[in-house]
Design goal:
The protein has helices at 8-22, 29-36, 40-47, 50-64, 75-92, 94-102, 106-123, 128-154, 178-185, 190-207. It is an all-alpha fold. The protein has 2 domains: 8-48, Orthogonal Bundle (Arc Repressor Mutant, subunit A), CATH 1.10.10; 64-154 and 182-207, Tetracycline Repressor, domain 2 (Orthogonal Bundle). The longest helix has 27 residues, at 128-154. It is flat.
Length: 218
């Protein structure tokens, strides 16, 4: 017997869980109804057809990504915290993020993080082009890192031997560094790599003095 009590939020929660597990193509109205223990007509009443449901999921994903809150004692620490939170949010819902992108809502999705980054850039004394440069560099770093992580996870496991990582040709160093080779051959802690890179990026952008370097090809 179909259940009687059903809310729009419950429909969206269950639909989001199905998308996370199987991707947008794995979300069908019949499958959603089965997961909820209700009739398909009941779902239509709460969220409309499948396209309306996907639109609602995309809109809610945009809202969820707007809850990023900076944390830390300094602008640099807070900027790193925003980057870390944004990476975590993107990693937790890749299929939903892809759905947001397909519906042309990418810029809206990143707007809350951009606002937080702008606020911290101003707190650090950056204005104009330098503030914009920091915001964009951090955002691109986060998105690029997440894409690399996702591609690595989808690829076959690769474990190069230590000997594969050390060669004198064509431009290998003359001094062997066994500890370096072992470290490079070990499994990658992607979160540690992310934090190292984003901290270096933020420190460099906040601490840079003097005239800006010309753009490549300028």
């Amino acid at each position: 017997m179909a259940r009687q009590a059903l809310s729009r939020e419950e429909v969206l929660d269950t639909a989001a869980a199905l998308v996370r597990a199987h991707g947008p193509d794995g979300l069908t109205m019949r499958g959603l109804a089965a997961a909820l223990g209700t009739a398909v007509t009941s779902i239509y009443w709460h969220v409309g057809n499948r396209e309306s449901l996907l639109d609602a999921l995309a809109a809610r994903t945009v809202t969820d990504l707007g809850t990023i809150r900076p944390d830390g004692a300094t602008p640099a620490e807070r900027i790193v915290s925003v980057a870390h939170a944004l990476r975590r949010s993107l990693r937790e819902r890749p299929h939903l993020v892809a759905m947001v992108h397909e519906r042309g809502l990418t810029e809206r999705m990143f707007l809350p993080a951009q606002r937080a980054l702008v606020h911290e850039a101003h707190a650090a004394g950056l204005r104009g082009e330098r503030a914009a440069e920091l915001v964009r560099a951090v955002q691109f770093h986060v998105v690029g890192h997440v894409l690399v992580e996702r591609n690595r996870e989808r690829s076959p496991a690769q474990s190069p031997a230590e000997t594969d990582l050390w060669t004198a040709e064509p431009a290998g160093p003359t001094d062997p560094d066994p500890e370096l080779v072992r470290a490079l051959a070990a499994p990658i802690d992607t979160e540690a790599v992310f934090l190292t890179a984003v901290r270096a990026l933020v420190t460099g952008l906040l601490g840079r003095d003097g005239p800006r370097l010309p753009a490549p090809g300028a």
